[in-house]
UniProtKB/TrEMBL annotation:
Pfam families: FTA4. This is Uncharacterized protein. PANTHER family: INNER KINETOCHORE SUBUNIT FTA4 (PTHR42040:SF1). It comes from the Eukaryota.
C-alpha cells in the first residue's frame, strides 16, 4: 500500500493561483446586452477592438502571472502561515489562547 504525501501549502496555493490566473486569462467577449445596445457599431470594428483587447490581456497575464511570480506569492503565503503558527504556539506557551 503506497502512501502519498499530503499536499504542501505551496502546492495548494500554487494550484489555486494558477486556476485564478487561467480564469483571468480567458478571452473577453461583448455580452448580448452590450451587443443589442450597440448594434449600430460595425461588426468588423467590434471584432478588431476585441482582438486587440484580448491580445493585451494575454500579454499582461504572461508578464504578471508568470509561473515564477505565482510560486513567489505561494511561498509568501506559506511563510505567513508558518509565522502565524509560530505566533500561536508562543501565545499558548505563555498561557494565552492560540489561533489553532
Amino acid at each position: 500500500m503506497s502512501h502519498t504525501a499530503p499536499p504542501t501549502i505551496i502546492s495548494l496555493k500554487t494550484s489555486f493561483l494558477s486556476a485564478q490566473t487561467r480564469a483571468l486569462s480567458n478571452l473577453l467577449h461583448p455580452s448580448r446586452a452590450w451587443q443589442t445596445t450597440n448594434e449600430e457599431l460595425p461588426d468588423k470594428a467590434v471584432n478588431d477592438v476585441m482582438a486587440k483587447l484580448n491580445n493585451r490581456v494575454l500579454q499582461h497575464c504572461k508578464r504578471v502571472y508568470a509561473p515564477q511570480a505565482t510560486r513567489h506569492v505561494a511561498e509568501q503565503i506559506e511563510a505567513l502561515y508558518i509565522s502565524s503558527s509560530y505566533e500561536s504556539l508562543e501565545l499558548e506557551g505563555m498561557g494565552g489562547m492560540g489561533k489553532g
